[in-house]
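dude i think i finally got it to work??
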Amino acid sequence: MLIRRPAEIRPSEITPEALFRERRRFMRTVAAGTILGAAPSIVAPREAAAAIDVAGATKGPFGTDEKQTPFEDATSYNNFYEFGTSKRDPAANAQNFKTSPWSIAVEGECEKPGKLGLEDFVKPFALQDRIYRHRCVEAWSMVIPWVGIPLGPVLQRFKPTSKAKFVAFQTLLDPSRMPGQKRDILDWPYVEGLRIDEAMNPLTLLSVGMYGKVLPNQNGAPIRLVVPWKYGFKSIKSIVKIKFVEKQPPATWNEYAPSEYGFYSNVNPNRDHPRWSQRTERRIDGSFFGTRIETRIFNGYGDQVANLYTGMDLIHKYF
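look at this
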């Protein structure tokens, strides 16, 4: 059997097929009259966040009135290589992922480092409901109502010092719970990073829920990052560590293929991926194959973030 590494597969070519298969599966379920019985396979167990009332979130300051991606698509068509490389693998393989107990360590260049359980980490802050566009580097996109807390106030709680120029994030490393980590696909654990002013931007969100529900396992339970003006791989999932650092930290896909996945990775229709165009995207919106639309600079959030990159070459140098 010939096994191809992820970087050898052109995602813009395989996306339509995967979406087609998922819709056929969903239609067969409906035809069989078992849609209600199938629902538990879409929403996985999520013990750690049970005490967090995501349904009580207030409407946040940002949002969009664009058509939302159906819940079934947003929870069954995912990139989460810790549970497999196929878009359907996370929903199938994350069902028994245990998220309790769960803690998050905050360390590095800060005055008050510490390690907190999920509830203590989240509860001091009011949950917000924000509808964000989510753009994947593979040229597909969704509109998802996230529930979470702004990252900036959380970071301020730990009092970063003047040496804190970047914020590094790390996903859980546990192959017994994340079977995809048993394969030599990426250099585990998954890591990501933001410049500190990006992390402090009001748009940046730590999500613990979506669609008014606790975050499903396959979508990054129990807590994940959402950075809506960047390509989706920057929004790291299942976070266990946050670290303030002085120098630019490593980021998994940037380390894997730096010519294809930049550290900043702002959504930019004017900078093509080396193997496909980023000028358009397939919006997964409930139609059979999705709707092809033009990609917007910063994913349409330029008013909020363009000032962060004044004077930077976002095409050739900083991407």
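The chain is about 20% helix and 20% strand.
im so relieved honestly
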